[in-house]
Design a protein that fits this description.
Length: about 350
């Protein structure tokens, strides 16, 4: 049976008594389960506990930014998705917005588990902005001082007029015989997306425009995401992925040629007996561990190493592997990343 942390149970009691949702940061929700990141196993544990406590989070805690405040409320089986174009958005601007319900239905599933641009830190860091009437020299000074390539042109927190960038300034100066004096003379249309836009859909827009502005559920500009931000995000996600891949290849090399086909088949998951096994590459990570966890099989590797300690480490790598393959923008913890690096080095030294 899933365990409901006392903090979550207290929140459920409050919601039931008052009929009003309770606001909580995603990071705090994770801390109730002793977690810092939204790994696959943690997400499953939280969903099971929410179901038992008869609560959902809005927006869903998996697709919200980790420091975003979400509502803990009673489940609503009706999921709403409505396209809308806010009245304060200029007609020339492109924006795709959906009502952010994302209530997990009773049963624990999510309407759409795709990663969202609103999960990125940059999408939740309010940007430095300028107005249409700002003098160009002031805008340029701000861009240089902060090492920015562009600035949103806005009125207040909600109305977007465009964006000014080094490219837009250069193009305006080439096209116009008169030098640009004000921001409005050099700005271009902005690409604006909602925080719930699929991350991979947003990447195409960022690649085309170099930058997109992100609006939150209250239609306020919550952040600005550039090609640089995307490159940093994927760089942080790629190292664990590559480490896991290298570790798997090292394990295959350790096993390859040491066992018969029948012995490899014996390590196959009994619940997947129909899967064809022709060589070590057909085994899953869990099946590597099942194969090596047998004393007689471990001895075949020929190393004076503790089978218990080594398979224990492999199980830890298997847990991290699940999180890495889950591809969550939170990434893996520093401790797990160090564990991957140490394991890769250890396996390298065995060859």
């Amino acid at each position: 049976m899933p365990k409901v942390p006392p903090q979550l149970q207290a929140a459920a009691d409050q919601v039931n008594e008052t009929g009003k949702p309770k606001m909580i940061r995603v990071r705090d929700l994770l801390s109730w389960f002793g977690a810092q990141r939204r790994g696959l196993l943690v997400i499953r544990e939280i969903r099971a506990a929410l179901k038992k406590a008869k609560l959902v989070t809005v927006p869903d805690f998996e697709v919200a930014y980790i420091d975003q405040r979400v509502k803990l409320k009673a489940p609503n089986p009706t999921l709403k998705t409505a396209s809308k174009n806010p009245p304060d958005i200029a007609p020339s601007e492109k924006i795709v917005t959906t009502e952010q319900s994302y209530e997990a239905v009773v049963g624990g599933s999510v309407p759409d588990p795709a990663p969202r641009i609103g999960m990125l830190k940059a999408a939740n860091t309010p940007p430095l902005t300028v107005s249409r009437e700002t003098e160009l020299v002031e805008a340029v000074s701000k861009m240089l001082m902060h090492d920015y390539s562009q600035l949103p042109v806005t009125t207040g927190e909600r109305t977007v007029h465009g964006v000014i960038s080094w490219k837009s300034i250069g193009r305006a100066k080439v096209k116009s015989s008169n030098s640009c004096k004000l921001v409005r003379d050099c700005m271009e249309n902005a690409e604006v997306v909602s925080a719930d836009t699929h991350l991979f859909d947003a990447i195409g827009r960022i690649a085309a425009k170099d930058v997109v502005l992100v609006k939150d559920t209250e239609n306020k500009i919550s952040g600005l995401v550039t090609t640089y931000d995307i490159s940093l995000q994927f760089s942080s996600l790629s190292e664990p992925f590559l480490l896991v891949s290298e570790i798997e290849n090292h394990i295959r090399r350790l096993i390859d040629g040491k066992f018969s086909l029948e012995e490899l088949k014996a390590a196959r998951d009994p619940s997947d007996s129909g899967r064809k096994i022709e060589n070590v590459a057909n085994l899953t990570f869990g099946e590597y561990i099942r194969l090596l966890d047998k004393s007689s099989n471990w001895a075949r590797l020929g190393y004076e190493l503790s089978r218990v300690e080594c398979t224990k480490r492999l199980r830890e790598i298997g847990r991290i592997r699940n999180d890495v393959m889950h591809f969550h923008p939170d990434g893996v913890s520093d401790q797990d990343l160090e564990l991957l690096r140490d394991t890769r080095k250890f396996l390298q030294e065995l060859h």
